[in-house]
Amino acid sequence: ITKAPKKIALALNISEGDDVYRIRRIRCANDEPIVIFDTYIIRSLDLPLDNDKYYGSLYEVIDKTNGVKITKAIESIEAIVATQDIADMLEVEEGSPILKTIRTSFDSARNPIEYTVCFYRGDKYRYFVFLDSLD
Length: 135
Prior knowledge:
Strand order of the largest sheet: 1-2-3-6-5-4
CATH architecture: 3-Layer(aba) Sandwich
Radius of gyration: 16 Å
Strand content: 35-45%
Order of helices and strands: EHEEHEHEE
CATH class: Alpha Beta
Number of helices: 3
């Protein structure tokens, strides 16, 4: 649990300095780090503080512990180069290509629940988007 910086507070529609959950996860494939997730979740949800609960689906944890379903999200995607901190966590060289995404997720009443910044290795990840009903 940490204090929400201004940017996070704005995204989650809370006040700067309010308590939020912060979860950092590093996902791997074949024992190689592929992505870093830095997630902030509103504190009004009652989430477990046990790290072992966050190896699977985060949305499933939110649903099981609070009955809250994530139904909508806004996500941006951009290409960046790895800072030394990101490079160290993803085991790549500083300056390596990174795909950065930022997602704000909402419940069915359109209340912001989660704000996540992701850093994907550019050499190990491809992003697909499926668009449907584009009449």
